[in-house]
Specification:
- The chain is mainly α and about 220 residues long.
- Helices cover about 85% and strands about 0% of the residues.
- The longest helix is centred in the first third of the chain and has 39 residues.
- The two termini are about 20 Å apart.
């Protein structure tokens, strides 16, 4: 019986990481292929100095960067998730992975559409909330034993992440509706698109890094 927790951890981690690797690699490949096609047409005649300027002010490229940031963020979140959490694998655990992968494909497929891309990010935030809600079904005392500090840290981290994702979803919703209503011009859209990965993305990566360091420093 003493080997059961370690067995659950190994099965859970290996299963999750394998599926994550397949899904994220597929989404990344799809995004890069479409980006190569776009750049070969949009910047075909640009010299190097001019190319940098054109890329920086191109909304499509910022959407690509933001989508890539989402792929990195999901990979990072799930990587440290399986480092800390484990249990006998559930169908819901796997289903959520594939649903998030589907939304990521939808985001990557709509980098050429302003409102479509932002609506995809609303769906991404909703799926993020569902994924975090699923972690609340984990038996933390079984995972961390009697370490109340780690249990409290894990719960507060989940609460913070859900708050960040909620703000991100509301932000994406208002941008999407404003775009459809014609209230946002191209320049403002560019700033908002850049703020998406440089704001919410960076905050969540920093928060996740702090969380992992805190949870593993005494392991």
């Amino acid at each position: 019986m003493s080997d059961k927790p370690e067995f659950n951890r190994e099965v859970f981690s290996n299963t999750y990481l394998t599926i994550i690797g397949i899904i994220q690699a597929a989404v990344f490949t799809y995004l890069i292929q479409n980006t190569i096609i776009y750049t070969s047409e949009a910047f075909a005649n640009q010299s190097f100095p001019g190319l940098i300027f054109e890329v920086v002010k191109d909304i499509y490229m910022w959407r690509v960067f933001a989508t890539l940031a989402a792929i990195v963020l999901i990979t990072f979140e799930y990587s440290f998730f399986v480092l800390l959490f484990h249990r006998p694998i559930h169908v819901l655990d796997i289903s959520i992975l594939f649903l998030i992968g589907t939304v990521e494909f939808y985001i990557a497929a709509h980098v050429g559409s302003a409102s479509g891309w932002w609506w995809a990010n609303v769906a991404f935030a909703v799926m993020g909330q569902i994924a975090f809600l699923n972690t609340l079904t984990f038996n933390l005392p079984d995972i961390f034993g009697d370490d109340r500090a780690k249990i409290k840290t894990a719960r507060w981290h989940t609460a913070r992440e859900m708050l960040f994702v909620a703000f991100a979803g509301v932000f994406a919703f208002f941008v999407a509706t404003a775009l459809q209503a014609g209230h946002i011009d191209e320049t403002l859209e560019l700033y908002l698109t850049a703020a998406w990965p440089l704001g919410f993305g960076v905050v969540m990566l920093v928060n996740g890094t702090f969380y992992v360091n805190r949870m593993t420093q005494h392991s």
